[in-house]
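Worked Example 4.2. Consider the chain below.
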Amino acid sequence: MVHLTLDLIAKSKNHFKKKRGLSFPEYLHALTHLHFSSKSIEHIGDISMCRNLTVLYLDYNQITHICNLDFASNLTHLHMQNNNITHMDNLSNLHRLTKLYLGGNRIAVVEGLKKLGELKELHLENQRLAPGEKLLFDPKTLLSLAESLCVLNISSNNIDSIKDMIVLKELRDFSAADNKLHSIEELEEVLSHWPQLLQMNLSGNPVCKKAKYRDRLIVCTSLVILDGKEITELNRRFLINWKAAKEARKIKNNQHVTKTQSIPHPLTWDLSVAGEGPHLGHIHSHVKMQQLQPQSLRSATPDHRKLS
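Applying the procedure from the previous section yields the following structure tokens:
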């Protein structure tokens, strides 16, 4: 089993070259970047002498737990993608962390970030989940990231809803490709709360096949790139004007229908209000009865011209 320890750092040729005459303790104290990608590391040991560490590369190893990093209060970038991590533990002391890379692990619940008030980027794509499992988010963790998180990558995690992420109002770059998002109405609602969003990738989701998917999202956002394709301002203006014209026609048609429905049939008008005359319905009935009378009755009135 390979452990990340001070001995491993001492044996590293890349780091040994940077000592520049310093003693090993002095070198460790001055160390800011530590590169141990693809070294078959399974465990993080005691490296607490590296107190000024700001960037740590431990990606493409075999680490199962995040541990022994409580000392790293100056750490800003942590690269631990493509390991075997199952839980987001022991991160609460990394108060200055701005970028966290945990894609390609086995994480099922996003949690443990409530004290990371400066986190700007969170990368959680391609978690190796059990069949039928999807990546879940702790609501308190999401709320704690609401004022800071700008970049979120949750692609390929069987996610079917992003409604809980509506609180992330500072997002500028959002990737959720190859998931199971299907509701365009939900997307429109969430995006209306992300005024800073400029780039989004939802390719590979069922919602992308919905009618007018791209047009509807362009109209309700300030996006400049959607699913890898640039959105020109001319295109946005055209779609906004098209939507406005469509809504205006709809309102006009509704007003016409309402007006037509509010006009009664002429034969039902009541002109006898306040004694102004007989009901036209009565007049109509009288005329009709006259038309139905036999000729003999209609001519029963004497013709004065003949009598004279």
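The chain has three domains: 2-237, 238-263, 266-294. The chain is about 30% helix and 15% strand. Compare this with Example 4.1 before moving on.
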